[in-house]
Amino acid sequence: MSDDVNNGERSGCGGACSEQDEKRMLSECLNRIHHKILVMSGKGGVGKSTVAVNLAVALSMAGKKVGLLDVDIHGPSVPTMLNLTEERLAAKNDKMLPVRIGELKVMSIGFLLREQDDAVIWRGPMKMGVIKQFLTEVEWGELDYLVIDSPPGTGDEPLSVCQLIGHVDGAIVVTTPQEVSAADVRKSIDFCLKLNLPVLGIVENMSGFVCPKCGEITEIFKSGAGEALADKFGLRLLGKIPLDPQVCNAGDSGKPFVYHFSKTATAKAFESIIAPILALSEKHKSNGSSNQESKAMKIAIPLAAGNLCMHFGHCEQFALIDVDPAGIVTGKTLVTPPPHEPGLLPKWLEEKGVTQIIAGGMGQRAQELFVESGIAVVTGAMGDTPEQLVAEFLAGTLMTGTNSCEH
Question: pTM above the 0.70 mark?
Answer without folding.
Answer: no
